[in-house]
Design a protein that fits this description.
2 copies of one chain form a homodimer. The first copy, chain A, is an alpha+beta fold. The first copy, chain A, has one domain: Pnp Oxidase, Chain A (Roll), CATH 2.30.110.10. The first copy, chain A, has 5 helices and 11 strands; from the N terminus they run βαβββαβββααββββα. In chain A, strands 1, 2, 3, 4, 5, 6, 7, 8, 9 and 10 form a 10-stranded antiparallel sheet that branches. In chain A, β5 and β6 form a beta hairpin. The longest helix of chain A is centred in the middle third of the chain and has 15 residues. The first copy, chain A, is globular and about 65 Å long. The first copy, chain A, starts with 18 loop residues before the first strand and ends in a 6-residue tail after the last helix. The interface between A and B is large, with 96 and 96 residues.
């Protein structure tokens, strides 16, 4: 299934069987991940990669930051590449050469626009909080107008995008298959610990539902 | 302590208290992380960010890939930005606005060089396998000359580099401190599951020590 725009940049030259262009695969990776890496080109033509949080609003990726931040000022109306990576397992082959990892990654190219409408920005900030902590926005008060304006939110259409996925066992050459070496996978998992209450709480409240029942979308 | 080169690119304009320029802090983040994101500028001047594995060889960062890969061909002798990010906890404040995360990240700028000497490349490949799976290189046979030459290894001095770290509790404004909202942290941990033996093993071997005792350096 191919429903994203495939361009020279999103097409894999090597290992094309690892590429995926369907929106469901791309969206699932975006939604499960908490961190993305935003690539920009600075004034001197040099690359800069900055980690940040993201949220997905339908077919758009949202990132945000202080209205004063370098990332936000540089990425606005300029070409970016946003990459999201999930590591699923380490792949131990019979030879060092064939060691690998199972992973799911997404690359999105495009030109983000800043959201300038207050209501749209408010909605986008809610999407971003929900992406990091599902259910949290209902537990806190609404954003004030000042808070909305102090944060810049950029919107990048998920159009020129693709996923790259490796899964499965190690693959060795036939001549190494009889080597007396164990081969297999080491699963890599992200776990969330028990909530830690802030020391400066003034009320004796149990941890919020969003924290005690924390889980990523799957 | 400042022992890395501080430049305009590695100096934080906002929240400078989060910046660290000591090699120990930078190295510990590099060593704990399994994935880095490499930013390059393509032929058309647009950013591209590619995830890959890395290893640290003293004061150099190593990345590798097929000698035929776009990343390796483009990054060689060109400006790159390599960013490494570890997420430690989600920070739930009393207001949506002050939600944050505790993280440790490293940014390294520079021009990588390809290792061309076979012995150096062999050593570098061992460093890379050990970075992903400590102890593994002693469990597998040595690399052949063909394997060494099929893989391109780039070496980037960790010189123009800095770390950025947020830790600690949520920070809310005084006017929100009495709100009846729980605030605190949700710890984020990377765990490694029990080894999964490859189906096509021809010998009945227990999982390797490197897999059963798997842990990241801390």
């Amino acid at each position: 299934m191919t429903d994203l725009e495939t361009t020279d940049r999103t097409t894999l030259k090597r290992l094309p069987q690892r590429a995926h262009f369907d929106r469901d695969t791309v969206n699932a990776i975006i939604d499960e991940a908490m961190v993305c890496h935003v690539g920009i080109v600075d004034e001197d033509g040099r690359p800069v990669v900055i980690p940040t949080f993201h949220g997905r609003d339908g077919d758009d990726l949202l990132i945000h930051g202080s209205a004063a931040s370098r990332l936000l000022r540089t990425a606005r109306n300029r070409e970016v590449c946003i990459t999201i990576t999930l590591l699923d397992s380490l792949v131990l082959a019979r030879t060092a050469f064939h060691h690998s990892a199972n992973y799911r990654s997404v690359v999105i190219f495009g030109v983000p626009e800043q959201i300038t409408d207050d209501d749209e920005a408010d909605h986008a900030l809610t999407v971003l909080v929900e992406a990091l902590v599902p259910g949290r926005s209902a537990e806190v008060r609404a954003n004030t107008r000042n808070e909305i304006r102090a944060t810049a939110v950029l919107r990048l259409p998920i159009t020129e995008a693709s996923a790259k996925v490796r899964s499965g066992p190690p693959v060795d050459d036939e001549e190494d298959m009889d080597a007396p070496v164990w081969a297999g996978l080491i699963p890599v998992e992200t776990r969330f610990g028990a909530p830690i209450t802030a020391d400066d709480m003034r009320m004796d409240l149990p941890p919020a539902d969003s924290a005690t029942n924390y889980r990523r979308p799957v």
